[in-house]
Amino acid sequence: MLILDSRRKFINYAALPFNPNLKERARELRKAGNLCEIIMWRQFHKGNFKAYDFDRQKIIGNYIVDFFCVNCLCVIEIDGSSHNGKEEYDEERDAFFKSLGLNVIHIKAADVLHNLSGVMKMLREHHDLSELRFA
Description:
The chain has about 140 residues and is α+β, with helices and mostly antiparallel strands. The chain has helices spanning about 25-30, 35-45, 85-100, 110-115, 115-125; strands at about 5, 10, 55-60, 65-70, 75-80, 105-110. About 35% of the residues lie in helices and about 20% in strands.
């Protein structure tokens, strides 16, 4: 069960499973940052998107997600070439997140690069990002 954290006024991260062995890898991914993730981070960072609170390269269980919206308990994944041929893995991963009560949105990297306004419109209207679960 996810509970409120008074420091962030959102969920208590201790309620989400966390693998501390992934901490350095998440830090490396944040520093390296692929282009699509950097573009999306600029859209999400510091409350730029609906004043929601996002984390980048968030560890949840044994996974590192591209973005996590604290307000809506939603994982956003940018699917580039690294996801090719890994559909079964992605399905298992999504099922794990859903078992925790998290929503999952997949965005194609090509859409971020070639249709950012369309991606942002889709996200603004997406039902998983329209309903605040914590404010």
